Amino acid sequence: MMHRPIQATILTQNLRDNLRLAKNICRQSSSWAVVKANAYGHTIEAALQGFSESEGLALLELESAGLARKLRWQKKILLLEGIFSIADLDEVLRLHCDHVIHHEEQITHLLSWFKKQSADRQAEFLEHCSIWLKLNSGMNRLGFKSAAYGVAFEVLKNMGCTVHHLTHFANADDETKFPSVQSQWDVFTKATQFFAGLRSAANSAAILHHPQTHADFIRPGIMLYGASPSGIYQDIASVGLKAGMTLRSKIIAIQDLQVGEQVGYGSQFTATKNTKIAVIACGYADGYPRHAPNGTPVWIGSRSHLTDGGLAFTAGRVSMDMMTVDVSHLPFAELGSPVELWGELLPIDKVAYSAGTVGYELMCAVAPRVHVSIV
Amino acid sequence: MMHRPIQATILTQNLRDNLRLAKNICRQSSSWAVVKANAYGHTIEAALQGFSESEGLALLELESAGLARKLRWQKKILLLEGIFSIADLDEVLRLHCDHVIHHEEQITHLLSWFKKQSADRQAEFLEHCSIWLKLNSGMNRLGFKSAAYGVAFEVLKNMGCTVHHLTHFANADDETKFPSVQSQWDVFTKATQFFAGLRSAANSAAILHHPQTHADFIRPGIMLYGASPSGIYQDIASVGLKAGMTLRSKIIAIQDLQVGEQVGYGSQFTATKNTKIAVIACGYADGYPRHAPNGTPVWIGSRSHLTDGGLAFTAGRVSMDMMTVDVSHLPFAELGSPVELWGELLPIDKVAYSAGTVGYELMCAVAPRVHVSIV
Predict the structure, then answer these.
(1) Taking the model in full, what pTM does it have?
(2) Number of domains in chain B
(3) Which of A37, A108, A149, B344 is a plausible cystine mate for B285, CB 3.0–4.6 Å?
(4) What was the ipTM of the complex prediction?
């Protein structure tokens, strides 16, 4: 049952192709397909289909880890922020999750929890719940600095844990910023050089641009969903990534403006010529960015065929449930015409760029009231 | 089961008080409490508790109308955009909804559907499903222009429908913009002057600022949730509205930056002195605005008491699951300290204003992965 005509469609074959593309770039590495935030808005169900060839899934919501196990994901799962409280360790064990440790308190919790477990549960934990110790190599968000890292490593090894190594880059999509990938990579390799264990550092931008960082496990995220790590479509135009999601709706009204008439809240658009305005059933309460200014692109189809259409541009402020587009130059735009807000005909990066944000934010923001179908 | 410490709480007593406040301003009017978009993110369940004194609920999702009926809402429901397809009319009848007609095609659908119904169902429809005909009085989004309005009215009356009158203001929160409330109100009263039926025009801003427009049914929306129609907190500071929602989380790490060190993606913050950074479990995939610049306010509590705290300001780009705040001046800020992103201690309008948006967008954007509790 769907009433408003807005609909998101998840294209699992494209997710699959994007993963293959990432793995082809890094043939020596295994992969953590990053599926946090409900697979960046694409749903865990779709991610399990699209990323069945990945060695593991990485996320941070234990609820989603539980869902993945329920849907019979039997390979690895990594909790990217580890535990938030001591009680989470029961779930980590039950779901057999690898988990990040980025903070001393997580070690304190682990030690105190571990002591209270039966020998069988201790053995099960040590066998199935590897630790990925997180180094703060310069991003200054989560992780141990180098001096504390070695101590944490030894404590965990002494418990009998399998410990691997992980860090995260601040500027893999922008070589002009400091800390650079190379400086963070140098800090990481130096801090971990005498320690056994696997290494994981490369996010999507590093997969595409910094082969020296691919190491044992890559962590592709945004690229799996077909969007650009930098937020700029040109940066991935030649890579061959495909849209993971389409967001489509319909024209629910046409308004003909005379010269001087306005449209929408705050009268942000005034017609300088006679103007044909299409009202589309999509607003910021569907997840479309309210801050999209006049001129943000929208693909308008003809009533019979979406692909048989053309680009138009927003005119007037995006409101909660609707947006308005200048379709004066598109004679086929009429009541009921299908529209693509982003997807295969209009890259999400182009919409995000116009709205001053990145594809990540748009795909995560698609609201619960939007019906999602998985194909 | 809640793992990440972020949580939204809906304060139904505050919703109730806000509705009373609106009704006290307009004692001659009935009210449509606007609960579209999942009650602006507050949930239909909470809205039914908070707005039990309203004569009706207004929304646009038939799914939510169905949920309200299932939860035993027996008073009026108004579909603000009416039907999207002919099949919706079966639901309109089943749920006994009043519904807007803003477009000729909706009338065509109604005529053709009505003819096919049994006499009993026709009578039931005419008795329980009043129509609110929408006039486009200058916003140029939805509705008939004055010339077409009279024709639509007569056609519907000839069917035997009860027909009421509705319009919507573009600039009720800003008297400097055209079309003005008064100009739209004049168009509305003139177009409907010879017609029987009730009248509804006033949104929150018009309720607060334009008493001449209150008419038979007010349509309070944003004010019910405790935020400012204009997006500026000062505009409602003395009105007495209360927060409908709090969004709270915790500090999950502290980083001490040396002079010259950066934090986060794109290195958008560089320490100009030794700086204590709190990492908070809340990111744009929770619904916090990614476009919030450095300096957006966050309320930081002490580990034992949220209210025993102070304001701090974001430092570095909001990322998908985390944000970073300069807490150098707050000695009590530590791992585990509670945080309010917006709510009773920090008005949502202040956060929205800093991020270049309005409270409406933030409250609607709270993501499904955020646990919501209703109190």
Answers:
(1) 0.96
(2) 2
(3) A37
(4) 0.96
